[in-house]
């Protein structure tokens, strides 16, 4: 695993790399893995998809694309007015109840409302999250707010919905990870993970994104009927940077935002890895557990984070995630056990 001090020098190198390779790509373009064309007819029977955090950004674009592929999409977010507004702009989408992932009670209530209306679930996209600028706060359940929002809330949501997913023919769970999983802590046992979930953990964001990869791996091991993937959407110019904008509006408007528009992906591009993991039939977690959107010279081994921070957009590319102990097996089991206990399952 890499440290935060290493991240500080990798980022400027990645910016230079991105500018250079995108210029070269104009001369010799990389092949792009495109998403398939949406079907001309609705799916039969109607398939159901939940996308968390789908009132804005990557989540909203994911919901729009999934609806275009014929899914009945449930927009899941904290605020009813925002969820209803987002659903009203997407044909085939609806909002049924608020979902605050930083509250176990809210997660359980959302699942109750969902089960009252639906008897099946085909695809669950665990997209919602907060970035590391929001870290250090406490959730209503007494845990690190960032870690619970990004991971534990999704862990509980998924576990409670698994009985409905097992009723379908080919269910999928897509967990949003990040290049920052490379910078996660070397947590292995359940006790390690419980310590890492405490309020104010300095590495909460990176650990939550590492947890998302390990969770997909554990779901595939424990639920053979289901396929689960973890995805890095890439560096995306989306609403996830809102805290940075709120803290320094002038700097964000005149310096940061123009840079983001130049070298970051837009939400259309940023949703590609997620949608690919949700709909492409021949994707196999055994070889494609982790998808990321950039061209990489290291496809046969664990990708260096430099190639995942930014670069030439190629749609979606399967690379190996960086896991504690190499295979992540002990860490995955410890994460599952700790999360099960803390979620009261």
UniProtKB/TrEMBL annotation:
Q: Which Pfam families match?
A: adh_short
Oxidoreductase as a keyword of this entry, yes or no, is yes
- Name the Gene3D superfamilies for this protein: NAD(P)-binding Rossmann-like Domain (3.40.50.720)
Its lineage opens with: Eukaryota, Sar, Stramenopiles, Ochrophyta, Bolidophyceae
Molecular functions per Gene Ontology: oxidoreductase activity
Q: Which SUPFAM superfamilies match?
A: NAD(P)-binding Rossmann-fold domains (SSF51735)
Q: What is this protein called?
A: Uncharacterized protein
Q: Does the keyword 4Fe-4S apply?
A: no
**Signal peptide: which range, if any?**
1-29
Give the highest taxon in the source lineage. Eukaryota
Keywords noted in UniProt: Oxidoreductase, Signal
- Record family assignment: Belongs to the short-chain dehydrogenases/reductases (SDR) family.
Report the source organism: Triparma laevis f. longispina
InterPro entries, alphabetized: NAD(P)-bd_dom_sf, SDR_fam
């Amino acid at each position: 695993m890499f440290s935060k001090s290493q991240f500080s020098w990798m980022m400027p190198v990645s910016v230079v790399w991105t500018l250079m390779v995108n210029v070269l790509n104009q001369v010799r373009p990389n092949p792009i893995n495109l998403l398939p064309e949406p079907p001309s007819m609705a799916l039969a029977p109607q398939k159901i998809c939940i996308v968390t955090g789908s009132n804005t950004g990557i989540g909203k674009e994911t919901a729009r694309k999934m609806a275009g592929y014929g899914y009945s999409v449930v927009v899941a977010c904290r605020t009813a007015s925002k969820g209803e507004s987002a659903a009203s702009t997407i044909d085939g989408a609806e909002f049924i109840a608020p979902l605050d992932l930083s509250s176990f009670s809210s997660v359980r209530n959302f699942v109750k409302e969902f089960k009252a209306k639906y008897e099946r679930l085909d695809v669950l996209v665990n997209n919602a999250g907060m970035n590391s600028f929001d870290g250090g706060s406490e959730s209503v359940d007494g845990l690190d707010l960032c870690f619970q929002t990004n991971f534990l809330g999704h862990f509980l949501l998924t576990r409670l919905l698994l009985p409905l997913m097992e009723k379908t023919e080919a269910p999928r769970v897509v967990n949003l990870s990040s290049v920052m999983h490379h910078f996660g802590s070397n947590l292995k046992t359940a006790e390690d993970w419980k310590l890492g979930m405490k309020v104010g953990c300095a590495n909460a964001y990176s650990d939550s994104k590492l947890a998302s990869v390990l969770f997909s791996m554990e779901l595939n091991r424990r639920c053979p009927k289901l396929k689960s993937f973890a995805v890095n959407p890439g560096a995306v110019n989306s609403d996830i940077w809102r805290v940075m904008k709120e803290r320094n509006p002038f700097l964000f408007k005149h310096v940061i935002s123009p840079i983001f528009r130049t070298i970051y992906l837009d939400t259309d591009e940023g949703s590609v890895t997620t949608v690919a993991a949700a709909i492409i039939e021949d994707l196999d977690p055994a070889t494609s557990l982790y998808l990321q959107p950039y061209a990489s010279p290291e496809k046969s081994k664990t990708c260096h984070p430099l190639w995942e921070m930014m670069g030439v957009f190629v749609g979606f590319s399967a690379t190996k995630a960086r896991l504690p102990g190499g295979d992540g097996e002990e860490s995955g089991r410890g994460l599952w056990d700790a999360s099960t206990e803390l979620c009261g399952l």
